[in-house]
Structures are given as structure tokens and as C-alpha cells.
Amino acid sequence: MLSLSNLSPQKGARKQKKRLGRGHGSGHGKTSGRGHKGFKARSGSGIKPGFEGGQMPLQRRLPKRGFNNIFRKEFAIVNVRDLEKLESDSRVDRDALINAGLIKAKDSFVKILGDGDISKKFIVAVDKVSDGARRKIESAGGTIE
């Protein structure tokens, strides 16, 4: 009778691992399949990703383009429609948006964009507000600080 205690894999399903350095008769004795000396015979060696046999690698042959400004400010984007989740007449600042789950705590700067509609009124105090968002917030009776 077959049970969990006597289960075994099907014949030929599992292959034994290659046992290196166990004598000439094994076929993997002496140099253990690494040949004689050379880079690939050494421990810790092996061709690294991107190595092209000494030829100038592709990532170094390709021209570098553009400019990465190390002083750039990354803004977390919040749309006007997302503000509907918050309570009316509340102050919308970075902390309120983090508590509502609209931005992450690691986000440094916040920008409100004008996508969607808004019916509640808010006091908005964030880093940037687009013109469209400003119009929608003020037409709903809100203010921007």
C-alpha cells in the first residue's frame, strides 16, 4: 500500500550529483574537470557577465547620452480626484496625505495635479499645485497656502 512513509521518486527522475576529485576511475579525478591551470581552473574565477574576451564590452562601447541632475527634486503626484477620500474642510498637507495612504513617508515633495473633479473644500498646503488643480480647488471653495 502506498503512503507518505514509503513514497519515492520515479526511476530516472533524480540524478546523482557529480562527485569531483574522487580518483581516475570516476572520470572526474585529478583536475576535477577543470583542465590544466589557466583562469578557469582557479577558485573564485569564472567569466563575469558582460566580459567579451578582452574586447571592449558593449556597455563601454555605446555612447553616453543625456544628463542626470543630481540635485533634482522628485515630486509625489496626487490628483484632485484623490482628495475626495479626505474629510471636507480638512487641512491637506504632507502628513495628512501620508496618513490617508496617498503618498509614502519617503516622498519628500508633493505636487497636486488637476485630474478629476472635486466637490469638497480643503485648505491645501503642499510644495506645488498645478494651474488646473488650483482652479478646481478654489472653485470648490478651498484655499491654497
Order of helices and strands: HEEHEEEHE
What is the CATH topology classification name of the domain at 75-144? Ribosomal Protein L15, Chain: K, domain 2
Poorly predicted regions: none
Question: Class of the domain at 75-144 in CATH?
Answer: Alpha Beta
Widest beta sheet: strand line-up: 1-3-5
Biggest sheet record: 3 strands, parallel
Form type = elongated
How many strands in all?
6
Mean pLDDT: 92
Taking Cα atoms only, what radius of gyration do you get, to the nearest Å?
Answer: 32 Å
Helical fraction? 10-25%
β-strand percent reads 5-15%
CATH architecture of the domain at 75-144: Ribosomal Protein L15, Chain: K, domain 2
How large is the count of helical segments?
Answer: 3
Distance between the termini: 78 Å
Helix/strand class: alpha/beta
Which terms would index this structure?
145 residues; Ribosomal Protein L15, Chain: K, domain 2; 3-stranded parallel beta sheet; 6 strands
